[in-house]
Amino acid sequence: MKTMTTRSALTGKDFISTADWTKEELGVALDVAGELKAAFKAGRPHRLLPDRTLFMIFLDLSTRTRNAFEAGMTQLGGHAHFIDANTSQIAHGESPRDMGIILSSYGHGIAIRHDKVPGEGNAYMREVAKHAEVPVINLQCDEDHPTQQMADLMTIEEVFGTRNLTGMRICVSWAYAPSYAKPMSVPQGLALLLPRFGADLVIARPPEYRLMPHVMERAHRLAAEGGGRITEIDDMDEGFRGAQVVYPKSWGAEHLFGNEREALALNAQYKSWICDSRRMRIAAEDAVYMHCLPADRGSEVTDEVIDGPQSVVFQEAENRLHTAKALLALTMGGFGARADGERPRSTLRRRARPTRRRR
Ligand code: CP
């Protein structure tokens, strides 16, 4: 098979940010996701990970991500364990280092959602990965939501028939929600990924809702390499103007995480930032409405738009399953050992721990 070598080369590779993978590697994952989607629809078995175990650590709630990965592991012939803080020793402060070492000795992959506190989640999962012997997948952190963004890119490719986004104007806009401090990871993840494929990405946001500077610096660097562009403006209408994809969603102001009262008061100043049919008419005629879900209906978006003909949110949500399975199969050895005979990179990071001999 043409891309088999590339596929097996991804065995053992962490997926903590799309920015850690080359465009070619991301393309391989999207190709595999397309094949797995076709197999799933046709009812063809695709047990690429028989008897393998994935450990899923969730330090926040989830509908799509948990169920896409859990169902995905079952369909690949393996099993996923759900772990949360309150029913594990994480609540008692068990360290990411120890989690990485111990869970590696029980199974074949670790996936983590840790997205509630700026400055913590990405560092936590990189610490797990440093000590794990198995690949670590980011199920959303403070900086990025890379498995969501892979489904987003897959959906854009299905809708427009190409993953070359050169010249495509995509508007990621802040939108009002009456809820407290959603992570910044989705807009940041979109900025890290889509301009690498050529997109002209416009981020529309009120001035207080700036994204993390170090993440945006990386996004701008990658955009320049990929031929895309990122522009930030403070006008939602202007962002929508001529856009072929609109992706309006709420996120928290970084300086108000931990301060719920002020965060909600600030949000309330921008209630007019809603995606409605007037704004959809400002966008390009063939524009699609996207959202990672769950959406705050009536605040972020009107029912008319999210349930209307331009909305692709359910296709986007479904693609979470197919992209999750592709990432699991590729990183957890579903396409065989690496052709160069190397052990997965993650197994090389940690020096062997001394073992005590039994007397
Ligand atoms: N889009 C997304 O990550 O959904 P969940 O929070 O339900 O997993």
Would you write up a description of this structure?
The structure is a single chain. By secondary structure, the chain is an alpha/beta fold. 40% of the residues lie in helices and 13% in strands. The protein folds into 2 domains: 7-144 and 321-348, Aspartate/ornithine carbamoyltransferase (Rossmann fold, 3-Layer(aba) Sandwich), CATH 3.40.50.1370; 147-316, 3-Layer(aba) Sandwich (Rossmann fold). It contains 14 helices and 9 strands. Strands 7-6-5-8-9 form a 5-stranded parallel beta sheet. It has a 4-stranded parallel beta sheet with strand order 2-1-3-4, with helices on both faces. Strand 1, helix 3 and strand 2 form a beta-alpha-beta unit. Helix 2 packs across helix 13 (313-331), helix 4 (96-104) packs across helix 5 and helix 6 (146-160) crosses helix 13 (313-331). It is globular. The model is unreliable at 1-5 and 345-352 (pLDDT under 50). The structure holds phosphoric acid mono(formamide)ester (CP). Phosphoric acid mono(formamide)ester binds next to helix 3.
Short descriptors:
359 residues, alpha/beta, Rossmann fold, five-stranded parallel β-sheet, four-stranded parallel β-sheet, 13% strand, disordered N terminus, binds phosphoric acid mono(formamide)ester
Topology:
Layout: H1 4-9, H2 23-42, E1 53-58, H3 64-75, E2 79-84, H4 96-104, E3 109-114, H5 121-131, E4 136-141, H6 146-160, E5 169-174, H7 185-193, E6 200-204, H8 213-226, E7 229-233, H9 236-240, E8 245-249, H10 260-268, H11 277-282, E9 288-289, H12 303-306, H13 313-331, H14 345-349
Parallel strand pairs: 1-2, 1-3, 3-4, 5-6, 5-8, 6-7, 8-9
Helix pairs in contact: 2-13, 3-13, 4-5, 6-7, 6-13, 7-8
